[in-house]
């Protein structure tokens, strides 16, 4: 349904449902194909994403895209990459609950159109929202969870992996590889 995704994108690009509309440069809707079987959910656009209009193009995004390619074999467009909030919070502050709530319908509509087999949440923010828990990522990661008709795999945010050294990188790789093997199982 590429047309439905384009229509959704067009509506989202004009969104003014929360105050982040006043400070953003561009709405970062998401990237990837509507028939992607993996969806990656991050937190919020950073400075480079705000300028380019594409999610995860900065340093942590490059790490994310590289490890996904290495551990799942999926190319950039074969995975649909989104954020919980589509507009950059000023100075990269945390998104506020009202902003997350205002933006949630866009994410829900994206998931309903893409219908992924596997959802990879990166970081506490996306993981807590989608699993509806207060538990932290170090406790939640390393396994998969039921998420509607999909499996959800929580992992570290790539920005935390960049700060966390070899141990964080090994955990991140492990979780992305788990997402890859779940995708293979779902294809069989
Ligand atoms: N961090 C995120 O969570 N999302 C982006 O798009 C970039 C950095
Ligand atoms: Fe709309 Fe989401 Fe941007 Fe707020 S963050 S203006 S709800 S697209």
What does this structure look like?
By secondary structure, this protein is α/β, with parallel strands linked by helices. It has one domain: Uracil-DNA Glycosylase, subunit E (3-Layer(aba) Sandwich). The chain contains 7 helices and 5 strands; from the N terminus they run αβααβαβααββα. Strands 2-1-3-5-4 form a 5-stranded mixed sheet. A hairpin with a 2-residue loop joins β4 and β5. The longest helix is centred in the last third of the chain and has 30 residues. The model has no long low-confidence stretch (mean pLDDT 96). Iron/sulfur cluster binds next to α4.
Structural class category: alpha/beta
Looking at the structure, the CATH topology is Uracil-DNA Glycosylase, subunit E
Q: For this structure, what is the CATH class?
A: Alpha Beta
Percentage of residues in helical conformation: 40-55%
User: How many domains?
Assistant: 1
Cα-atom radius of gyration: 15 Å
Unreliable residue runs = none
**Count the strands?**
5
Total of helices: 7
Query: How much of the residues is beta strand, in percent?
Result: 5-15%
In CATH terms, the superfamily is Uracil-DNA glycosylase-like domain
Gap between N and C termini: 23 Å
- The string of secondary-structure elements, in order, is HEHHEHEHHEEH
The strand line-up of the biggest sheet is 2-1-3-5-4
Please describe the biggest sheet, giving its number of strands, its sense, and whether it closes into a barrel: 5 strands, mixed
Mean pLDDT: 96
Ligands and ions found:
uracil, iron/sulfur cluster
Going by CATH, the architecture would be 3-Layer(aba) Sandwich
Shape: globular
């Amino acid at each position: 349904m590429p047309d439905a995704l384009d229509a959704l994108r067009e509506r989202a690009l004009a969104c003014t449902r929360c105050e982040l509309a006043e400070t953003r440069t561009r709405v970062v809707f998401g990237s990837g194909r509507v028939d992607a079987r993996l969806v990656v959910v991050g937190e919020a656009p950073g400075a480079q994403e705000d300028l380019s209009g594409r999610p995860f193009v900065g340093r942590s995004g490059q790490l994310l895209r590289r490890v996904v390619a290495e551990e799942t074999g999926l190319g950039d467009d074969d995975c649909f990459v989104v954020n919980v909030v589509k507009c950059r919070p000023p100075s990269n502050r945390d998104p506020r609950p009202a902003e997350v709530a205002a933006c949630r319908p866009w994410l829900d509509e994206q998931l309903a159109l893409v219908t992924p087999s596997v959802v990879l949440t990166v970081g506490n923010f996306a993981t807590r929202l989608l699993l509806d828990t207060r538990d932290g990522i170090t406790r939640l990661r390393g396994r998969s969870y039921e998420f509607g008709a999909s499996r959800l795999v929580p992992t570290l945010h790539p920005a935390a992996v960049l700060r966390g050294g070899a141990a964080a990188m090994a955990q991140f790789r492990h979780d992305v590889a788990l997402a890859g093997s779940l995708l293979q199982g779902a294809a069989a």
